[in-house]
Amino acid sequence: MTMGGTPELFWEEGDSLAGTTEALAPERRVVADADGVDTWLEEKVGDSLRTVGLYDGTTLELLFVRPDVVTTYDEGDFEDIAREMGFASALTDKHKERVYEVGDLDHVVRGFEEATMVRIPIDEHRGVFFSFDASEEVELPTLVEELQSAVDPEFR
Q: How far out from the chain centre does Cα 115 lie?
């Protein structure tokens, strides 16, 4: 998905979004090595995990989308979510750090009736986002800290 222009998604109509993107051609991937971030989150969050993605400021790669979530949204919806959770929000991170003067932005959480969405910036343009069922009790600060220590995706 491309910021500011027509988003480029890493699947084509008819492709299954469930599972990982490992089968995609290397030139279509945003990361050289996801370092198991999707598997790690599945182990920690369990069946309530809804989505896992990595973004680099211009492109989004969905590593995991739970099958029932796939049927809830269409491709345009995923584009909007990616823009909102990743790219658009990332543009204001440095501004927020200056305004609040409480250190570097560690993570952003958005809670909804059915899902909780988390974005973890790695640097100014790259990061991880994931979502899980709102009914799942997750100790987010601990999970974020453990994730940051456990995985280190290698972007292209």
A: 14
The string of pLDDT tens digits covering residues 61-71 is 888 889 998 88
Q: What is the CATH code for 26-155?
A: 3.30.450.30
**Quick check: pTM over 0.70?**
yes
C-alpha to C-alpha distances, 45 to 11, 35, 50, 86, nearest whole angstrom = 25, 17, 10, 21
Contacts of 81 (CB under 8 A, 6+ apart): 73, 117
Please tell me the least confidently modeled range out of 90-94, 105-109, 121-125: 90-94
Separation between Cα atoms, residue 145 and residue 139, nearest integer Å: 10
Tokens of 95: 């501004």
